[in-house]
Design goal:
The chain is of the alpha/beta class and 239 residues long. Helix content is 33%, strand content 21%. Bound molecules: zinc ion.
Length: 239
């Protein structure tokens, strides 16, 4: 079984459509989403509908939680708050309820899914180093856990190591890996292309895919919606 692991779509319809097409071409049968379906970009409603229809599961992200009214907006930046309020107004009640019902963690066979950290999934901490990953790895009950939130792809191994995830990697058995899929809709590692992972369960292979999409259309949609222009501009440079 091949699964696509997708994180931080952030209402970027063009990037999501390109990733789903790419993953389908590579034979992915399930699509697991690591949260933050909405926020920042201009097509939250369309992205919620696509994710709902995909075969797979989706966990709760901090933007999903805020838009669903599960927590206050005061820890977001002012520009993020304006987008979250716009997003709320551009989803149906049914779509907001779907976001509100997402769980913070899910287990699918031998894989755990979470948005930010496993030790405290709804505190929304950022894991950027192998030492920061240790707390999550200590809570991890499956060989693999996929996460997002930082929008930077990478693999952390229990014991303080990091594996470079530049293309494909074969994961050795008997170790635990905490793996970031990067971001579909707003990459922040200097590469504008949408990021996601393909996980081949039989071979324990992980492939990082970077997918070109119509970034100009996504940027224009941000401007047309009256969202902050800098959110459209950052898509062009992947930061
Ligand atoms: Zn995010």
């Amino acid at each position: 079984m091949r699964c696509a692991i997708i994180a931080d779509i952030h209402a970027n319809l063009q990037a999501l459509e390109a990733v789903v097409a790419d993953a389908s071409e590579y034979g992915c049968e399930e699509f697991h989403v690591l949260g933050d379906v909405v926020g920042y970009n201009a097509n939250p409603s369309e992205c919620v509908e696509i994710v709902r229809a995909l075969p797979g599961v989706c966990v709760l992200g901090n933007h999903d939680s805020a838009v669903a009214g599960l927590e206050p907006l005061d820890h977001f930046s002012p520009s993020a708050v304006s987008v979250l309020e716009w997003t709320r107004a551009n989803l149906t009640e049914d779509q907001r309820c779907w976001l509100a019902a997402l769980r913070p963690t899910r287990q699918i066979r031998l894989v755990t899914l979470v948005h930010a950290t496993l030790d405290s999934p709804t505190s929304w901490g950022y894991i950027r180093t192998s030492s920061a990953a240790e707390l999550s790895l200590a809570c991890q009950r499956t060989p693999l856990c996929f996460f997002g939130h930082t929008h930077v792809p990478g693999i952390f191994v229990q014991g303080g190591r990091e594996i470079l995830l530049d293309e494909g990697v074969q994961l050795p058995p008997d170790q635990k890996f905490f793996i970031n899929a990067g971001s579909v809709g707003q990459p922040r590692d200097g590469d504008w292309r949408a990021s996601y992972l393909i996980h081949d369960e039989e071979s324990s292979g992980i492939w990082l895919r970077r997918v070109e999409y119509n970034v100009q259309t996504a940027r224009q949609a941000v401007l047309d919606a009256g969202l902050p222009a800098k959110l459209g501009d950052r898509l062009l440079i992947g930061l």
